[in-house]
Design a protein that fits this description.
934 residues; 28 helices; alpha/beta; 17 strands; 5-stranded mixed β-sheet
Length: 934
């Protein structure tokens, strides 16, 4: 219900904005359509009638009974004219008027012949020209489609055979006239290729796929996640929507040909059609991140001297995916690989040799490498332990990969299969290949991995003992726990090549640039203001500690955590005031009296909560219980008011601002807010009708409720000062309990509501615990609000008001700053103010206050430094991206200059032009933003 309410509110806001700006919404366009619906239907039906009264538009003599649905306009043709008009449009869809309506026909049925081998013209060596009249001897279309791939019966006329062609608009059957030149019989498949038709077989092709349909299939698979079966079923529907089963099944041919086509396209795009003497090496048929620093590609030759080490450090994220499973093949030795290890997957042979030589510790023998694989001791990494189960029907239980952590580009030649879950031996191979990918080694490599704490323990030892693992000399591995890779897997579980940076290289970096600027804007002011307000010597000491922690890391990073106790509690303040109360106002017991007043307010709040939790029609027993609580509370209030006359020397404290009302926003999940009205007017608060002011809303005569216009003696003024101090303690206590309750709620959410174990067991117990904690959060929030309101009425100074800020409902969320101090993404946090509440009276002279300032200054500095470094890094990445595009352009320019064949030169020029356009677009988008290093 809440989700529906939010969606409705959002739709209302969008609708209001569109109306205000005179922009038509979707529903406005639909309303415009409704008056024209009948007219539109009439036009559609008129298109079904005979075109041009059955006269041919071209010759004007023959019967124009044929129309083309693929041609623009409405024209009628006779058989000879339609063949002439479609000599070079063999994949148009025709209809023939049968005297009553238009029915489907084909170009082949009208006598169309497709000539191959001479640019679409008949072969000069044909002994006679084929008869262009309709091919009546071929029989029905179903008979033509019945021919299987490789059949030897096809020639119905000399040099002419039937060919099934799969196009993006359907499946067609055409009469094909082959080239009759000497030796051409063995080159039929090449004649098809030259006509932009890909043969389904090389010996006697009987089916072919247009280049267009193969490109369409690749794009559909990428963008729409369309399977080959679904794609071919779509073509069935295009061809004959009423009877799709009559269309020949070329699904297996599509699967085979699409693999070959993808292999050819990849080799062409990566220049191996030009560099014919060179075969692609590992990962050479895959793109990597343009924005990541790569020596010899997008870094200058002097990069080691031009850049700080942290700028060019490699940043990788590692993860596994268990939905990308692979079934065992019946005859694996018959499998033919077209690009083994040339793309993102690793080369099978060396990888399997590594797996064979790397065994778990319990299986170790003297001749094999020991891999330290033990059950993970981290409770949050149960996935690793749960997936180490052998599945006999699977060749691969999943895949693992290494990707660029900043831009999401998978590193070529790093995707590995899992044989038995996500084991270190699998990910070691992927990580080592990633580190070795760049032509020239880079010193440090950051590895972000969700089980980095376990994986990194023996990683160096495993690499040293392995014959198949190696790292460039001087490489320093920096492990860090984290999960960033989930969004880079496709929903099907397969590897996605749709990386954000390769889809739109400029949009991705510009977004990072804007975020960095916003981050600096949000953190620079608070950091500088806090620095100016602190003691300079303390700041210098903290700065040195931060620099040392950044350099040496380890336990030194604990400087970012609080080490002191909490703020003074109400009990501590009460003890201090009790010790000094006689000297302050000349009478004892005043502090205890004030404490009793605050306790009565808390009891009133508890009673109001009990009333809100009653059902709409409470039982007699429930009503009696509430009434008994009221009577006991009223007795305490009367006794408190009697003591008030003594404490205040008979001064009347009534006539203040009235009894407090609970903020409905701080009563969530206690009762329906819509039913909450003024407590004095609510029926359930007045059972007998004789109570003017029920106990739960009776005003408590405390100094804070005295009317501001009253003249007060020294005794009352002293009581007001004592109450102000107690109210500060009350506020501190409420905030401390509030922080604890919010932390408890985060534990319940993490361990019981959102944990893997409780996915199917989010029952009454967990929900009851969560409700109890929520009620506690609301109670402490209301208590703090009462304390703050009392402080304002008692004339608290501006410093106190600045410390004890108003409490808003959005502040009552789980604090990740306290409960998840080591999470990533803290630079964007805006911590609720009460997590940093402090008593500013003693400022830094107070030890716990100084500790609070120390931690907050360190974090403020870290956040500001982080965004400053992010901005600098993004600006360099912009330059590296343009340099990467320029390198690609230069490579294709060289291929164009070295090309002998005209086709090779033309394609190289086109590729070079494309990369040049990328460079120009980058310069335009990044103007005034990028940092250029010569």
């Amino acid at each position: 219900m809440k989700r529906k309410t939010k969606v409705s509110s959002l739709n209302f806001k969008v609708s209001s904005f569109l109306k205000k700006n005179h922009v038509q919404a979707q529903n406005d366009f639909l309303r415009d359509y409704l008056p024209w619906r009948t007219e539109y239907l009439s036009v559609l039906l008129d298109l079904e009638q005979l075109v041009n009264n059955g006269k041919c538009n071209d010759c004007g003599e023959g019967e124009g009974l044929i129309r083309c649905l693929s041609c623009s306009g409405t024209r009628a043709w006779c058989p000879s004219c339609v063949l002439e008009a479609h000599q070079h449009n063999p994949f148009h869809n025709l209809q023939l008027w049968n005297g009553r309506f238009y029915e489907t026909t084909t170009l082949q049925a009208q006598g169309y012949i497709m000539y191959l081998g001479h640019g679409g013209e008949p072969c000069p060596n044909l002994s006679h020209q084929p008869d262009p009249s309709p091919w009546e001897d071929l029989g029905s279309m179903e008979d033509v489609f019945a021919q299987e791939e490789g059949d030897t019966i096809n020639d119905t006329q000399l040099g002419v055979s039937n060919l099934v062609i799969v196009h993006s608009t359907g499946v067609y059957s055409h009469s094909v006239s082959w080239c009759q030149c000497p030796g051409a019989e063995k080159a039929h498949h090449l004649d098809l290729m030259k006509a932009r038709l890909f043969p389904a077989s090389l010996t006697r092709p009987r089916s072919a796929f247009t280049f267009d349909v193969l490109d369409n299939f690749l794009i559909d698979a990428l963008e729409c996640k369309t399977s080959a079966m679904s794609f071919y079923q779509k073509l069935h529907r295009f061809t004959n929507n009423a009877f799709p089963d009559k269309i020949p099944d070329r699904y297996r041919e599509l699967m085979r040909v699409s693999r070959i086509w993808r292999d050819l396209v990849n080799r062409k795009r990566f220049g191996f059609g030009h560099d014919t003497e060179q075969s692609p090496g590992p990962g050479d048929l895959a793109l990597y991140c343009p924005a990541c620093p790569q020596p010899g590609i997008n870094l200058p030759t002097s990069w080691r001297y031009d850049y700080e080490e942290w700028l060019v450090m490699r940043r990788y994220v590692v993860d596994g995916n268990f939905t990308a499973q692979h079934m065992k093949m019946k005859i694996p030795e018959d499998d033919v690989s077209l690009a083994d290890g040339k793309g993102y997957m690793v080369t099978e042979g060396p990888y399997q040799a590594h797996i064979h030589d790397s065994v778990e510790e319990r299986e170790a023998s003297s001749s094999r490498l020991i891999i330290f694989l033990k059950k993970s001791t981290c409770s949050n990494h149960r996935a690793v332990n749960a997936t180490n189960i052998q599945r006999s029907n699977l060749r691969a239980t999943g895949v693992g990969a290494t990707a660029c952590a900043r831009h999401g580009c998978f590193v070529p030649h790093t995707v590995v299969d899992f044989q038995k879950g996500e084991r270190h031996m699998n990910m070691d191979y992927s990580i080592c290949n990633a580190v070795k990918y760049t032509p020239e080694p880079i010193g440090s490599t950051l590895i972000i991995y969700d089980v980095a704490c376990q994986w990194s323990i023996h990683f160096a030892e495993r690499v040293d003992q392995s014959y198949h693992l190696s790292l460039p000399e001087g490489t320093k591995i920096l492990p860090a726990p984290g999960i960033l890779m989930g969004k880079y897997w496709r929903p099907s579980g397969l590897l996605s090549t749709r990386f954000p940076l390769l889809q739109d290289p400029f949009k991705s970096l510009l977004k990072k640039y804007r975020h960095a600027l916003q981050g600096i804007s949000d953190t620079q002011g608070p950091y500088e203001e806090l620095t100016r307000s602190l003691d300079l010597d303390d700041v210098q000491e903290w700065k040195k500690a931060a620099e040392k922690a950044a350099q040496d890391r380890g336990e030194l990073l604990d400087i970012y955590q609080l080490k002191m106790d909490k703020a003074p509690s109400m009990a501590e303040i009460r003890l201090r005031l009790t010790e000094n109360e006689l000297s302050a106002n000349g009478r004892t017991g005043s502090v205890a009296w004030l404490i009793e007043g605050i306790n009565i307010e808390n009891s009133q709040d508890a009673l109001r909560l009990s009333i809100r939790q009653l059902p709409q029609d409470p039982t007699a027993s429930q009503r009696t219980g509430i009434e008994e609580k009221r009577q006991k509370l009223m007795a305490r209030i009367i006794k408190f008011h009697e003591a008030a006359e003594v404490m205040t020397n008979g001064m009347d404290l009534k006539g203040g601002e009235g009894a407090p009302l609970d903020n409905p926003e701080l009563c969530l999940e206690e009762a329906d807010i819509s039913n909450m009205e003024d407590p004095e007017e609510e029926d359930i608060l007045d059972f007998d009708g004789n109570i003017d002011s029920p106990a739960e809303v009776t005003e408590i005569w405390m100094p804070s409720w005295a009317a501001s216009g009253h003249i007060m003696d020294d005794v009352v003024l002293a009581l007001r000062q004592e109450e102000l101090e107690l109210r500060k303690g009350q506020a501190n206590d409420c905030l401390e309990k509030l922080r604890q309750a919010l932390g408890d709620r985060s534990v319940v959410f993490r361990e019981k509501i959102h944990s893997n174990k409780s996915v199917h067991h989010q029952g009454t117990r967990s929900k009851k615990e969560l409700q109890t904690i929520t009620l506690s959060i609301n109670r402490h929030a209301r208590g703090y609000s009462r304390a703050r309101a009392a402080m304002l009425r008692l004339g608290a100074d501006s410093d106190t008001v600045a410390v004890y800020q108003p409490l808003k409902p959005q502040d009552l969320v789980v604090s990740k700053e306290v409960t998840e101090e080591n999470r990533h993404g803290q630079g964007s946090d805006k911590l609720a103010w009460f997590w940093r509440i402090n008593n500013t009276e003693d400022s830094q002279k107070n030890l716990w206050m100084n500790e609070f300032y120390r931690v907050n200054w360190l974090k403020a500095k870290a956040w500001y430094d982080r965004w400053s470094e992010e901005l600098k890094l993004v600006q360099h990445e912009m330059f590296w991206t343009i340099s990467w595009f320029r390198t690609q352009e230069e490579r294709w320019r060289v291929r164009a200059d070295e090309s002998i064949k005209n086709g090779n030169r033309a394609y190289a020029e086109r590729q070079a032009s494309m990369w040049a356009e990328f460079s120009a677009q980058g310069l335009k988008n990044f103007e005034g933003k990028l940092l250029i290093t010569s």
